[in-house]
Design brief:
By secondary structure, the protein is an all-alpha fold. It is 83% helix and 0% strand. The chain is elongated and about 75 Å long. Keywords: Membrane, Transmembrane, Transmembrane helix.
Length: 230
């Protein structure tokens, strides 16, 4: 009989949020970098094919650049997490008393008496020593590491999707609507990414939305001005 494949561990909330974070940041960068190129080129030339190719090229470059950056960044984080696990594995062998003391201090800060905290520490370290230390010291779950591929693909897809908004608006809207339509599309898009980033980061939604819209407007203005110089 063939052995069944082990089930993939269910993602933790932190892992899911990390993938969503990569997606939101990728989308925001896709919007702003593509509209920056579009405004610069469109201000310098009225050739629609040139504008489209410039925007499309930047969209692809941005998407793959963001994906590569996320992969490298999260890979480093994953390596650090694994190193932490190995460090604690060794400490449990060489400095067990200090590990017990660390767990005891943790529970005492939660209001548990010293005697009870010591009993909890002894019990936890007898049953799940490495899992306990990783959880208490680093707020991690043993066996769960940030996935660089999830972050990379999330960023790749979202940066591409974000860049499509200004690209489509500038390319396909009627001439009379190109500029206002693109400005509106970008403003609404970055407002949405600002909202999502605030929700994920538990920040102030209003501040994040306004900040993102202002950054978007400034980005468009600067690149338009640069385009008019040529």
């Amino acid at each position: 009989m063939s052995k069944s494949k082990p089930k993939k561990a269910k993602q933790t909330m932190d892992e899911k949020l990390n993938t969503l974070r990569a997606g939101v940041l990728g989308s925001n960068d896709g919007i702003l970098t593509v509209v920056g190129v579009l405004f610069s080129v469109a201000a310098a030339t009225s050739n629609q094919f040139t504008i489209f190719i410039a925007g499309l090229s930047d969209l692809l470059a941005c998407a793959f650049s963001m994906a590569g950056g996320e992969y490298a960044s999260v890979s480093t984080q994953k390596d650090t997490e694994k190193a932490v696990v190995e460090k604690e594995r060794q400490l449990l062998k060489t400095n067990y008393a200090d590990e017990v003391a660390a767990v005891k201090r943790h529970y005492m800060t939660l209001g548990v008496t010293e005697k009870t905290a010591l009993a909890i520490a002894d019990d936890l370290l007898a049953k799940k020593p490495l899992e306990t230390m990783i959880s208490i010291k680093y707020d991690m779950q043993l066996g769960h590491y940030m996935n660089p591929w999830d972050a990379a693909f999330s960023s790749l897809f979202s940066a591409s999707a974000g860049g499509v908004f200004p690209l489509v608006a500038m390319t396909f809207l009627p001439n009379a609507m190109k500029w206002p339509g693109t400005i509106l599309a970008v403003s609404l898009s970055v407002a949405l990414t600002g909202y999502l980033s605030a929700v994920l980061g538990k920040g102030n939604v209003k501040t994040a939305v306004i900040r993102n819209v202002i950054v978007g407007i400034i980005t468009m203005f600067i690149h338009y001005y640069i385009g008019t110089l040529f």
